[in-house]
Amino acid sequence: MSKHVCESASAWCSGTMFVESNDTAFIFGIEREDGRPGGVKSELAERLQIFIEFLREQNEMTYLAMGGLGAIFQGSEYASQARVAAAFMIHRESLTDLALGYRNRDGEYVCEKFEDEHRFLENARTTLSFEELDL
Description:
The protein is an alpha+beta fold.
């Protein structure tokens, strides 16, 4: 298992830690319900926790914007986390599996591994970075 920190100042994931293990990637801390990883300095743990909370809030906002129709879309509970992890996976190239921690529709916190998640990867590959946008 290895941990990588995205450090680029212009990167969307600045300071976010990702974990790689057995072809699987996940955001460090996502495996915990509170999103706060253990074993790191409290400043880093707090930054990661805030980032994970932000992603979870984005999922909730998207769900509410759909007017309750989000339940018919598979993955709406974890879409934001999956997009971020998939973007990291593209840069590492050898990763094929995605691990996520999220609250399911029954209100339970679930840690799940998605194997060969090509749909997340393909979606991430088609998304332009801010630097690529012609604004």
